[in-house]
Write a structure and sequence with these properties.
The chain has about 140 residues and is mainly α. Helices cover about 80% and strands about 0% of the residues. The chain has a single domain, classed as Orthogonal Bundle (N-utilizing Substance Protein B Homolog, Chain A), CATH 1.10.940.
């Protein structure tokens, strides 16, 4: 059974690792996940999320840059940057409701960063979600 929150958590952790190590760290990151205690389905979903974010990273970062006032993506904290990337990828490519994506991103920020981080993630993600909705209706 897929545990979606755990898959998002694993994907966020993997994206942070790859952000530091570079894309060459993919095999080691995925190997670490496969050796863990999570189900194969959950691990596979996390891998799909990671690969999806990496494939769309330039478009995602461009969207985030346009919506985060005074914050370039490169200046964002490691956790916040990758939580936002994951959430934007999910908004762009899945049928997960916007409210669920935003709530999950805020939850990850609260669990792993700070209260201030969760407010930042909420603000940037809400503006980005609105932009995505505007673009898709045109």
């Amino acid at each position: 059974m897929i545990e979606h929150h755990k898959a998002r958590l694993m994907a966020m952790q993997g994206l942070c690792c790859l952000d530091v190590q570079g894309d060459d760290g993919m095999d080691a990151t995925l190997g670490f996940f496969r050796d863990g205690k999570e189900s194969l389905e959950t691990t596979d979903e996390a891998e799909c999320m990671i690969r999806g974010v990496l494939a769309e990273r330039n478009e995602i970062d461009e969207l985030l840059s346009g919506q985060s006032r005074h914050w370039k993506v490169a200046r964002m904290g490691l956790l916040e940057r990758n939580i936002l990337r994951l959430a934007v990828w999910e908004l762009l490519t899945t049928h997960t409701p916007k409210k669920v994506v935003i709530n999950e991103a805020i939850r990850l920020a609260k669990e792993f960063a700070s209260a201030e981080s969760s407010k930042f993630v909420n603000g940037v993600l809400d503006a980005t979600a609105e932009r995505i909705t505007e673009n898709s209706s045109q």
